[in-house]
Amino acid sequence: MVSEVKAQLELFFKNWFNKDRKPRQTGQKGLSIIGQRNRLQYIILGLLNQRSQTGYDLTKAFDHEIGEFWQAQHSQIYPMLKRMETDGEITHQDAVTGEKLAKKVYQLTHKGRQKLEAWISEPSPELTATKDEFILKLYFIRSADDPRIPAMIHEQVTLHQAQLDHLHLRMATVFPDQAAIDAAYGHYLILEHAIERETQYLAWLNRH
Question: In this protein, which residues make up the domain named Transcription regulator PadR N-terminal (predicted)?
Answer without folding.
Answer: 44-117
